[in-house]
């Protein structure tokens, strides 16, 4: 069994980006600039955004955090998005999800200019991804693709089961794995909460991507020997022994599944760090105007 070290790969990507930023600055170009919009005080969102800002600084990007209280109106949030669209110094920006229930999340995402949508959630970027056209691929699926590539994991002709069909992880992941590209060419089964006899699918799988948010869902008796397992799940589970009162649990019962795997990602230290690295990669592409000129 080989552990897929997302933290290590993420640091390598950050080092490459930092080098490129230095060269851009030496060539008299402007510093890449990522902005993040955070609504409310959700603990998870605060941590994710703080990590994104910290990593931006590490690679030499400029970063801006715009905060709104939980009760911000949709109109005011949309105006923030429009201002960021019109701000020529900002190359790309994200609106951290989830948003409060009184705000139409889709409307907000569709207001972001596709050329600045470095999270890759705008329908234009999603559509371009499906059509295999240049686009920003959403950060978590993009990070997983890079992990599979770095570890030379063969995907062509393999059976891939994706568990979870969200717009931000499972659904784009299933499309990427099925594409007629060097990484892809899998026969993909997309499972969700209505899937019957899910175990019949997982037991046939050469590659399983778990993105359902149910701690330790995938057990040893659900997988075959030699399977590749990518665990996207990150659920905060209360723990009296942890300093901050919780531990992060993946969707895979790691201790019992890992011995059957050829490759597996840990939680934490697997997919999570790659999500941030991919967001930075998208921002660099935005700064270089490589996708939308
Ligand atoms: P989500 O929007 O809640 O979607 C969960 C999906 O899982 C849904 O499609 C749901 O099916 C399916 N599902 C739920 N229970 C199931 C079951 N028992 N059997 C089969 N399918 C089931 O979640 P998400 O945003 O995709 O996130 C999934 C997990 O990944 C969460 O733990 C999240 O924190 C984590 N995540 C991690 C990163 C990272 O960077 N590491 C990034 C994003 C998300 P239905 O569609 O039928 O409801």
Write the layout of secondary structure elements.
Elements (H helix, E strand, L loop, with lengths): L1 E2 L2 H21 L6 E7 L3 H17 L2 E7 L5 H13 L5 E4 L9 H7 L11 H8 L8 H12 L8 E5 L6 H9 L8 E5 L6 H5 L4 E4 L16 E5 L3 E4 L7 E4 L4 H4 L3 E4 L6 H17 L6
Parallel strand pairs: 1-11, 2-3, 2-4, 5-6, 5-7, 7-8, 8-11
Antiparallel strand pairs: 9-10
Bound molecules: NADP nicotinamide-adenine-dinucleotide phosphate.
Describe this structure in words.
The chain is an alpha/beta fold and 293 residues long. It folds into 2 domains: 29-113, Rossmann fold (3-Layer(aba) Sandwich); 139-272, Rossmann fold (3-Layer(aba) Sandwich). It is built from 10 helices and 11 strands. The chain has helices at 6-26, 43-59, 74-86, 105-111, 123-130, 139-150, 170-178, 198-202, 254-257, 271-287; strands spanning 2-3, 33-39, 62-68, 92-95, 159-163, 187-191, 207-210, 227-231, 235-238, 246-249, 261-264. Strands 1-11-8-7-5-6 form a 6-stranded parallel sheet. A 3-stranded parallel sheet has the order 3-2-4, with helices on both faces. β2 (33-39), α2 and β3 (62-68) form a beta-alpha-beta unit. It is globular and about 55 Å long. It starts with a strand and ends in a 6-residue tail after the last helix. The model has no long low-confidence stretch (mean pLDDT 97). It binds NADP nicotinamide-adenine-dinucleotide phosphate (NAP). The site of NADP nicotinamide-adenine-dinucleotide phosphate has 25 residues, from α10.
